[in-house]
Amino acid sequence: MPQIIFLPHEEICPEGAVVEAEPGTTICDAALEHGIEIEHACEKSCACTTCHVIVREGFESLGEASEEEEDLLDKAWGLEPESRLSCQAEVKDKDLVVEIPKYTINQVSENH
């Protein structure tokens, strides 16, 4: 089973984490299933950028982003060529190394 290595994030997972994920599971769902509380303000419906991640290794194993996802990513903080919305990026058969950006753009944050 593929592993997702989450790099340390000051608030969400300070120590980093290594989790296993069934192929077909999204990065966001795998994170949430393992207690990594990645933000997902639109409830994983591809309508915001709060679950934006940067796939540092294994990016090429992910399916292509939809046009809708690409349009949203253009609005994400800290956009990089290997950026994806974690609610849309499905794990395939390769291990991934994922970085959760320091900031997110959330117009309606519930943690205020």
Q: Can you give a write-up of this model?
A:
It is built from 2 helices and 5 strands. The longest helix is centred in the N-terminal third of the chain and has 7 residues, at 27-33. The model is unreliable at 108-112 (pLDDT under 50). The protein has a 5-stranded mixed sheet. The chain has helices at residues 27-33, 67-73, and strands at residues 3-6, 17-20, 52-57, 83-85, 96-99. 27% of the residues are buried. Helix content is 12%, strand content 19%. With 112 residues, the chain is α+β, with helices and mostly antiparallel strands.
What's this, in brief?
The protein has 112 residues and is an alpha+beta fold. 12% of the residues lie in helices and 19% in strands.
What attributes does this structure have?
12% helix; single chain; 112 residues; five-stranded mixed β-sheet
Report helical residue fraction. 10-25%
Strand order of the largest sheet: 2-1-5-3-4
Overall pLDDT score: 92
**Biggest beta sheet summary:** 5 strands, mixed
Rg, nearest Å:
13 Å
Task: List how many beta strands DSSP finds.
Answer: 5
Order of helices and strands: EEHEHEE
Number of helical runs?
2
Shape: globular
Separation of the first and last Cα atoms: 38 Å
- In terms of DSSP E residues, the strand content is 15-25%
Structural class of the secondary structure composition? alpha+beta
Low-confidence stretches: 108-112
Compile the SSE list and pairings.
Blueprint: E1 3-6, E2 17-20, H1 27-33, E3 52-57, H2 67-73, E4 83-85, E5 96-99
